[in-house]
Fold each of these.
Amino acid sequence: MIQKYILVACAVVAGSFASAAQAQTYVGVSAGVAIPHKSNNQGAFTSAVPATTAAPVYGAIPSGTALGWQTRFDAGYNIAAQIGHRFDDGFRVEAEFAFSRAGVKRHSGVNVGGTSIDAVDASVLTRGQTVGSTVGQVVNSGIGSQRGIAGFVNAYYDFNAGGTFQPYLGGGIGLQQTRFDYRPSNIDVGQGKETNFAWQLMAGATYKLSPKFEVFGQYNYRDGGATRMGLDLLPADLNAKSRQSLISAGIRIPLG
């Protein structure tokens, strides 16, 4: 699906190039830091979990019972490539293709039916023998990742168009394929991968070193939507959210 979107994005940008009276096409690359925002994962049990009759004794969990927890991420990285067109009035359009990755820092606040179970022995999840560690201790682990492959059509306005230093603002829409992999304490909790509508807002500045070479710095706020995860440890589904702040630097090469 992303491949189809990329073709459409290229066609839109190429069409804008062809219709412009004054064309200045450019290509660019950038790299930087990806800082994912915390994900408040929310979902529900897809089938009932029976009660235990031998110690430790736990009650049944009915199908449809709410399940959730919070996930925080480490800083990761983002790389991107752009092809765009700059108009004389300060506006420009751009197709952008990006990849980002960040590791999981920790999970916390595990709740079932709205009740926290962080202080309960982890056997409440496995329904086996007493583990000797609480749920909170088991999930407080930095194993796992969030990855995104995205394609966007962006629009910008360059202030001081034609000058050497050009601050700018922009926004974009597109698609992002996001993959979550949660493995706290090396326990395979679950994975999920989905392609969703995504949007972003940008602010930055360009510095023209010469008519044929530019450098730029940019901040992005990017929302990649929610990804459904089928859990392996429990009979439940969970929605994890992809929202990131991206701080990057790059180069552009005007072609005309």
Note: The chain has three helices and eleven strands.
Amino acid sequence: MSTHAEDLPARDEPDDGPPAAGPVTNLVIALLVVILGGAALAGSLSLGVGSASAPGPGTWPAMVSAALVVLGLALGARARHADDAERFTRASLLVLAAVATMVVFVAVVGVIGFEIPTAVLAFVWLRFLGHESWRTSIVISLAAAVAFYLLFVVALDVSIPHMF
């Protein structure tokens, strides 16, 4: 199959993608990233980071949180010049829905174990956010829950809340 020049869009044609965000939105998002990273850093430091030879439970979370703070600051510094971020639209609500389902997932895992919430989360993401078929959503969500159980509980013996 060959591609002909006339099949490709011209470089000067306007892009029909979503509108660009703008400097205020970019700055607000950068600030939110810094706040999230700072809160996560405070939480991870309270866990204890240990030392290089004996890392504590907060070591990796602290490193990721510090990276979030640095990246948020870099994003803020480029807020006026960044033109590749999209303006919030109705489609952005899908991201909020995904975050909300993750919050619910985290809230219930400690109470009922991870198996059912994992299957439900995968199903919701596949069926309602990803618009997969019912059959695909059911099969993959159940397979994911079984695979995570076998990997984390059976093979790696990770101490996470589980039902079985």
Note: Residues 9 and 15 are 10 Å apart (CA to CA).
